[in-house]
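sorry for the late reply, my laptop died twice this morning and i had to redo everyting from scratch. anyway the thing you sent over, i finally got around to it. pasting the sequence first so we're on the same page, its 189 residues, then the predicted structure underneath. double check i copied it right bc i was rushing
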Amino acid sequence: MTKTHPTAQEDEVRNEEPATENAASPAENVVDEEENKSVVPETDELNVKLAEVQDKYLRLAAEFDNFRKRTLREKIELTQTAGDTLLKDLLPVVDDFERGLDIIENSSDIESVKTGMTLIYNKLKDFLTNNGVSEISAAKEPFDADKHEAVTKIPAPSDNLKGKVVDVIQKGYALRDKIIRYPKVVVGE
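ok and here's the structure:
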C-alpha cells in the first residue's frame, strides 16, 4: 500500500476535532464565563456587606466601651459627692453644739444648759429621722439574732424576761430597712 496524501475533506474533519479531550466547546465556554461573572459580583457584594457589618460592630463596641467608661466615671463622682448634702444639713447641728459649749463655760444656770442640750439632741434626732435613720427598739423584746447583738447573758430578773432583752448597752440604728448598727444587748436566761 502506498501512502496517499489526505484529501481536503479529511483535513477539514481533522481541524474540527478538538485538539485535546479537556477543551470545552465554545458554548460551554460562554456558560463558564457567565457563571464566573455572576460569582465575582456576588463575592464582591458579600465582601462589601461583610466590611459594613464589621464596621458597625467596631463602632458599636467602641460606643459601648465609651458608655461603660462614662457611667463608671459618673458613678465614682456620685459616690464622692453623695454625702455633700447630708453633711451640709448636719452643719447647723454642729453650730448649735458649739454655741452650747460656749454657753456652758460662762453659765451657772444648769437648767438652761440642760434645756439647750435637749434642744440640740432633738434637732439631731429630727435630722436623722428626716434622712431615713430610725432607732431599733430592743428593750424587753424577744432576743432576735438577726436584729440584736448579744454581749452577754444574765439570769433573768423575772420569768417574763427569759429569752428577752434585759438591757441595751448601745442603741442600734437602721437606714430605711437596712440595719447600719446592731443594738448591743444583754439577754436574760
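The longest strand covers residues 149-154.
thats about all i looked at so far, will dig more tmrw
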